Amino acid sequence: MIVCLYVEDLIFTRDLSVDDFKNAMKTEFEMIDLGLMKYFLGIEVDQFDDGIFICQTQYANEILKRFKMLNCKPTATPVSDNNEV
Questions:
Q1: Is 83 contained in some domain?
Q2: HEC letters along the chain
Q3: Degrees to nearest 5, angle at CA 7 with 61 and 45
Q4: Of the four listed, 10, 17, 49, 69, which is most buried by Cβ atoms within 10 Å?
Q5: How far apart are the first and last CA of the chain?
Q6: Total domain count, the chain
Q7: 31 and 56 belong to one structural domain
Q8: Range of 3's domain?
């Protein structure tokens, strides 16, 4: 089992049952189960059967809002289609 703890947030991956782990933690610590992770350290998380998708859309929107750029016109970023520099 891998357990990551940051301040009061906890993430874990498992080999043992989720319920066994939660019950063991609840006997030692005061805690509540918030279900599947949706947001962690500024990163939005969507979990699916075939994988996990992460993004920072909310964070980017907060930055745009702070600098009064929410209504700015987006533009494409040119990307080279070959390996030449």
A1: no
A2: CEEEEECCEEEEECCCCHHHHHHHHHHHCCCCCCCCCCEECCEEEEEECCEEEEECHHHHHHHHHHCCCCCCCCCCCCCCCCCCC
A3: 40
A4: 10
A5: 44
A6: 2
A7: no
A8: 1-35
Q: pLDDT per residue over 38-71, tens digit each? A: 887 788 998 888 888 999 998 889 999 999 999 9
Q: Per-residue pLDDT averaged across 4-16, rounded?
A: 65
Task: Name 2's Cβ contacts closer than 8 Å, sequence gap at least 6.
Answer: 12, 13
Q: Which amino acid is at 31?
A: M
Q: How many whole angstroms separate alpha carbon 43 and alpha carbon 57?
A: 8
What is the C-alpha to C-alpha distance for residues 44 and 59, in angstroms, rounded to an integer? 9
7 alpha carbon, distance to own chain's centre: 15
How far apart (Å, rounded) are the C-alpha atoms in residues 56 and 43? 5
